[in-house]
Design a protein that fits this description.
By secondary structure, this protein is mostly helical. It contains 11 helices and no strands. It is rod-shaped and about 185 Å long. The termini are far apart.
């Protein structure tokens, strides 16, 4: 019988899916990873081979269960029976062994050891204990690696969440900045209204000034025609005066005629002199009127300078709008960078999901093989899978959050596009108004300069004539 059991154990060892470590490696591992204090110092190779000590092996199993399941040492000595038990002293030695045995039966299938028995606790054997301890060591190493990887994943997940939060904050700040840029602040609304009113007043004033200029041009033309007529009359009168002087000279030479005729001629001459004086007075009045009109033209030039200043203010406003456009472009570039980072994060999550799916497939295959050997699963395995389902649900929630953020970023891009179109339309309108005002003012300045030159030339001519 003993030979058959030994053959069975050897066959079980050949079927193991985990490496069987040497005794020195096992002792070193349990000293550093499982035991603490005096227990780690007192554990030696002789406690396992050639004849393992039952107390040390039971203590090792207890410490492993405490480490994995967070069981307190008092729980192993608690009797799972009712209080009204006769002779409870009989159970004092049995209760910790039975607790260790039951919990190890629940734990060792996770480590791919399915044939754990009570003899492995009460009277352990060297080869059997080495196999069990190496299985537990393999599981603890795997657990440590998984804990480190999960801690790294949690840390990366936290950093990704912090990045997402920072990106959402920056996006909200960018939205607020865009709202501030698109909406005129209440402090500047009054200035904007004043500028709009000033533009309307400028348009009305320019129209009125165009009308006044046309009326002035007509009056100047009439004045020029009147001056030409007056100059013709003056030339005729001068010719008449010269002829009269000649006649007077002739008459003086011929003073033979009667004095009555002389008196009549003198009266005629006086009347002609009076007419010439009246024509001179009229010409002086016309000159005064022309001087007044020249002064009006100077006032018009001052008003034009005021208009030019207002146009410069409009140019400053256009420059401010251009600066706002540049800020919007910077915000768009920042949003694109954030989207790229979100895409990279989504790709990393997809890769992690694929790795998890591959691992899940492998684990499912291994579990199917194990289920053929053993039908009953441990409650601890169910708890582990429940935790994994919770993590999976959390990841699905994170994926939903990422999709919502992507949707919000799309809406944000659409808003930015609409704002760009509005800004471009406003700038085009302002540029058209600016170009129109410049052209009209240039034409107006040219007309005024021509009028002033003509009036100056006419005045110089009049002065030379007079």
């Amino acid at each position: 019988m003993a030979a058959q059991q030994y053959e069975k154990e050897a066959a079980g060892m050949s079927r193991n899916t985990f490496p069987v470590y040497k005794v020195d490696a096992i002792v070193q591992f349990y000293r550093t990873e499982v035991l603490t204090g005096q227990e780690a110092k007192h554990l030696t190779k002789n406690d396992i081979t050639p004849n393992p000590k039952a107390e040390t092996i039971q203590r090792l199993y207890m410490r492993v269960l405490e480490l994995i399941f967070r069981i307190k040492p008092e729980c192993f000595y608690a009797m799972p029976l009712s209080e009204n038990v006769q002779y409870p002293m009989l159970y004092e030695w049995v209760t910790p062994i039975m607790n260790v045995y039951t919990r190890m039966c629940q734990f060792l299938p996770i480590c791919h050891v399915y044939d754990f028995s009570l003899n492995d606790v009460i009277s352990p054997k060297a080869k059997r204990t080495i196999i069990i301890l190496s299985a537990i060591q393999n599981f603890l190493i795997f657990r440590k690696q998984r804990l480190e990887s999960t801690a790294a994943q949690q840390q990366s997940f936290r950093s990704d969440l912090e990045r997402l939060q920072a990106y959402t904050r920056e996006i909200k700040e960018a939205e607020k900045k865009i709202e501030k840029l698109s909406i005129i602040p209440p402090e500047q609304q009054a200035e904007a209204k004043e500028l709009a009113a000033a533009l309307t007043e400028l348009t009305t004033n320019t129209q009125h000034e165009y009308q006044d200029v046309s009326a002035m041009n007509e009056k100047v033309a009439q004045c020029k025609t009147g001056i030409a007529e007056i100059s013709q009359k003056l030339s005729q009168r001068r010719v008449e005066v010269a002829t009269l002087k000649d006649e007077i000279v002739k008459l003086k030479s011929q003073i033979v005629e009667s004095p009555e005729e002389l008196r009549n001629e003198m009266e005629r001459m006086k009347e002609t002199v009076k007419n010439i004086k009246t024509s001179k007075d009229l010409a002086d009045e016309r000159l005064v009127e022309l001087q007044m009109r020249v002064q009006c033209a100077g006032q018009v030039e001052a008003e034009i300078q005021v208009l030019l200043k207002q146009l410069q203010d409009l140019q400053d406003i256009i420059c401010q709008t251009n600066q706002q456009k540049e800020k919007i472009q910077d915000l768009v570039a920042l949003n694109e960078a954030l989207q790229k980072e979100l895409r990279s994060l989504s790709t990393e999550e997809a890769q992690l999901k694929r790795v998890l799916a591959m691992k899940l497939d492998k684990e499912s295959k291994q579990q199917i093989r194990r289920l053929k050997k053993k039908e009953v699963k441990d409650q601890q395995v169910k708890n582990i899978y429940g935790q994994y389902d919770k993590i999976h649900e959390k990841r699905e929630e994170v994926v939903k959050l990422i999709e919502e953020k992507n949707h919000e970023t799309k809406q944000f891009n659409e808003k930015i596009h609409m704002l760009k179109e509005k800004c471009s339309q406003r700038t085009q309108k302002a540029q058209e108004i600016y170009d129109h005002l410049l052209t009209t003012l240039e034409q107006y300045n040219k007309r005024i300069e021509s009028i002033v030159l003509e009036t100056n030339a006419d005045i110089s001519k009049m002065k030379s004539n007079f």
